[in-house]
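Re: the 499-residue chain
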Amino acid sequence: MAKVSVSFWGTIRWSAIGTGWQLVAQVAALVVLARILTPSEFGVVGAAMLLVQVFIAVGEFGLNAAVIQAKDGSVEFVGSATTLSCGFGALAALLLWGSAPLAASLFQMPELVDVLRAYCLLLLCRAVWLVHEAVLQKELKFERLARIDRASYGIGYVLIAIGAAMSGLSYWSLVIGHLAQESIKGWLVLVSTGDVPRFCFRQRKIRALVRFGVGQFLSRCGSLWAAQADTLIVAGTLGAAAVGVYGRANQLATIPFHHLGQVLDKAIFPEFSRLNAQDRPFGEGFEGLMRIGFYFSVVVAVGGIAFSDWLVLLALGAGWEHAVAPLQILFAAAPFRMIHKISDPIARSAGIVYGRAWRQWVVAVVITAGAWFMSDNGLAGVASAVLVATMVDASLMMPLAASAAGVGFRRAAASLIPGVTVGGMLGAGFLISEFAWHENRGGLSYRVIAVLVLVIWIGCLAFLRKQLLPTEIRSAAVALLGRAIAPVVRKEGGATSRK
């Protein structure tokens, strides 16, 4: 069976660097902009982005995924994808322009008309460089993409948006920052792929792209609906204050997994598409990723559940106690979200788009019906519906990905055993510590409790080394570490020799 290469772990590394930089810059920009702009000014752009995200999906139409997944990498195929991208981008821009007055009326924000129409430029800009970015991803040039992301976000959004806000441009500063970021990123991407053809039209290539794109688009729509349904139902049944509490709880529970999911998607999809194009099975790679991802998510989830009250107090401050219960339930859903985030790009890499699409719509229906039915029980009820929906999602997506990777369901399920075992060990440790902290019954001293917890953690680490990290993964990690340290060692060695 084919194993993922060391270059794959390098891809993970550079994807993590790019995503991590963007996260840090985003938080820094938010801290500064929040002290310049008012909540209502943020609200105008936030409302606009809800609609813009939908039309971004229309403009993309799954073409970037089609280019990465396809075995055909010919000039005609890439050129035809570029032509389609520009066509769908123009269509999305026209639809957004025409729907702007209706959206402004629904949101009761007259200023939304001009803001949405300004974002039409973003859709047109993305249409030009979307396929070119997919080519870089297909070629696993993530170091270059990470540098492009750092430059475009740092200059385009952070500096320009903050400068515009300080100049008194109100919510337009955020719009200008978004447009500048997309423009700079597009220019850098096009420069990086200067030999990629710009336009071409071949009917056979177009048919293949549309066939894949329709399935990807349907799946994307189902995912968008599933991601927003719980919040919409909270807004409609429990009120604005409940939306604020639920939104912050959901954000705390999903931030690490959202960004890790972005890293995994950027790395898994092109790497496994490459293996699929070479007709090479990738069962061991699937099992290793599932083992690592599920293990990590279980550890974070158990810790999040155990310390949710402290986390709410630290991150949100006093007065947010109602966020603790939904936060604990949403943390419990984290391991099932991770199963989806690993299974989804693997299924896509095998070209299974329509199978993914109907599964996403099933999950969307489950979460919508469940959240509506459980909303009588408050935020905890809605969060419980989300937990059930993520379990359904994992049970549907994992067998699909296992089949695509050529692995039986039993073997795929076995890859979850380390995470389940360590989760139980950690959970027992946290329960014992919690019992001793609040009760301290039977004369049990804190030293004994500390020893018991320490033994549990040592057992977890031993289990981690033997079960979680197979030989090939440890070798890849050592190779990456060696490549990272080697330039520093050579530099210091050269300096010493000169002395």
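The CA atoms of residues 333 and 387 lie 5 Å apart.
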